[in-house]
Specification:
With 487 residues, this protein is mainly β. It is built from no helices and 37 strands. A hairpin with a 4-residue loop joins β15 and β16. The radius of gyration is 23 Å and the shape is globular. The protein starts with 22 loop residues before the first strand and ends with a strand. 47% of the residues are buried.
């Protein structure tokens, strides 16, 4: 539940239950079916938006937009598909409106000029269409995020000639603007303006591009107040942004770590920004991980959903709970060994548990099926679990925590636990495996220990930004974890 609640959004009371319903559900047919967004509704159920190749007029690689309403136990109450045969359509964002209906944003090739165009659908509480709007452009266009505003209208962002749209309550355009390349998330702020995030082009490639993070603050009329306070060369993308109760922001997505100009990897990143967009804290995940969604929790923390690789290098769903200072409370991965699972959306429910939505090729009927997990307050529940924490040796009781803050900006903390007195050495390595810093070996007692590193090498010089490994060895055991240096 968001810490900052807007007047147009339902306020759901937080009532933890000892017997909260937990479930694992798949929805789909013989083809690919995906969940792109999921929200809890005022009646305690859920609304899901996505794409289906299996139902309606959908077919292989030519999906229909798809909305499903579930009750609190995850049982389907109704579903609707939208689109014509032989075209591609998708619903990428959904929100319940003040009237109990739903606003849906995505892309359509079925309507307008039969070219990918921005698409908005207003549904009533039963899922029937009240109205639709198509906004065409000179380039393939889509909407990735939409929110109802306090005036009863809507703000929507995506990719197109104009990728920011402010609409009235009937979906008519009030004003439009363009910023960056692809905008993935928008939220109205406490001052009536808007916070928007996505990516721009840092470096073009033969196929695609390396993204740079794009963050923009607009006033209520769409005038830019500030842009990219982290700099225009912060490589990565934002998939979620939300305002906190203190006026700052939580941003989540991925950051690009470079080994060389042609060798790079994404890392999940979650950041707290102040009211002017400057970094307060940041946290990074494993290599080849990403964050697709972040939402506020009742305790002031954040729930982050995304993906991480299992030990077989296949993606698992990832659900991570951070406290208000960015420290990891817990992280859970969900998926079957060798299977491919992706999380696209998550939020805390009114009972204190969490709902996660995405897709899996390991469960259900088709290649990919829409996959929904209801977890308890610790992220546990029915269904397959994924990778274990790489920083724990279960045989010895020797453990190494993820450094914090991560990425390292000025200094980072490394905590480790040894089960008995031992001679312990801590070393830092760059992505090529070369040691850049080794701390003197020390005889330490059993228990928890803390070491700080300021990002300098053996000669006291600052190491370059990028991917590093830190290793703690002692008592016949050794554990290694990854970190980012990003100043």
């Amino acid at each position: 539940m968001k810490a900052l609640l807007l007047a147009a959004v339902f306020t759901l009371p937080f009532t933890p239950l000892a017997d909260m319903p937990l479930f694992e559900k798949t929805f789909g047919g013989s083809e690919n079916d995906f969940a792109c967004c999921m929200r809890q509704t005022a009646d305690g159920g859920y609304i899901v938006a996505g794409q289906t190749d299996s139902f309606g007029n959908g077919s292989a690689h030519q999906p229909d937009a798809w909305c499903i309403k579930l009750d609190a136990a995850g049982t389907r109450e109704w579903e609707r598909t939208f689109g014509e045969a032989g075209t591609a359509d998708g619903a990428f964002c959904v929100q319940q409106c003040a009237d109990g209906g739903y606003i849906v944003a995505g892309s359509t090739s079925s309507y307008g000029g039969h070219y990918p165009s921005m698409w908005i659908l207003k549904l009533d509480a039963r899922g029937d269409t009240s109205w639709t709007r198509v906004f065409e452009g000179r380039i393939a266009s889509t909407l990735r995020s939409i929110a109802q505003t306090r005036d009863g209208g809507y703000i929507a962002v995506g990719n197109g000639d104009e990728n920011i749209l402010k609409l009235d309550s009937s979906g008519n355009r009030e004003w439009a603007a363009r910023c960056g390349r692809l905008l993935n998330c928008v939220e109205q702020t406490a001052d009536g303006g808007y916070i928007i995030a996505g990516d721009s082009i840092y470096r073009p490639l033969d196929f695609g591009y390396i993204p740079s993070l794009s963050i923009v603050k607009l006033d209520a009329r769409g005038k830019e107040e500030w842009r990219n306070p982290l700099g225009n060369s912060f490589t990565g993308r934002a998939n979620a942004i939300l305002q906190c109760a203190d006026g700052g922001y939580i941003l989540a997505g991925d950051s690009i770590g470079f080994r060389s100009a042609s060798d790079y990897s994404p890392f999940l990143i979650a950041m707290k920004l102040d009211a002017n967009g400057h970094r307060v804290w940041s946290r990074a995940g494993r290599e080849f991980s990403s964050a697709q969604c972040a939402r506020s929790c009742a305790d002031g923390g954040v729930i982050v959903a995304g993906n991480t690789l299992d030990d077989g290098h296949a993606p698992d769903m990832l659900l991570m709970k951070l406290d208000a200072d960015g420290r990891e409370a817990w992280a859970k991965a969900y998926g079957s060994a060798g299977g491919w699972q992706y999380a696209s959306s998550a939020e805390q429910c009114t009972d204190g548990g969490y709902i996660v939505a995405g897709q899996t090729d390991s469960e259900g009927q088709g290649h990919y099926d829409l996959w929904i997990l209801k977890r308890d307050q610790n992220g546990d529940g029915p269904g397959p679990t994924g990778i274990s924490d790489e920083g724990v040796d279960g045989r010895s009781g020797f453990s190494l925590s993820q450094n914090y803050p991560n990425p390292l900006v000025t200094v980072t903390n490394i905590e480790y636990r040894i089960p008995r007195e031992a001679d312990v050495r801590v070393s830092m390595f760059n992505a090529a495996g070369a040691m850049v810093k080794s701390f003197p070996e020390r005889r330490l007692p059993q228990g928890l220990h803390l070491l700080q590193w300021n990002g300098t090498d053996e000669h006291g010089a600052r190491v370059p930004d990028g991917l590093y490994f830190y290793q703690v060895s002692g008592g016949g055991y050794s554990l290694t974890r990854r970190m980012l240096v990003l100043r």
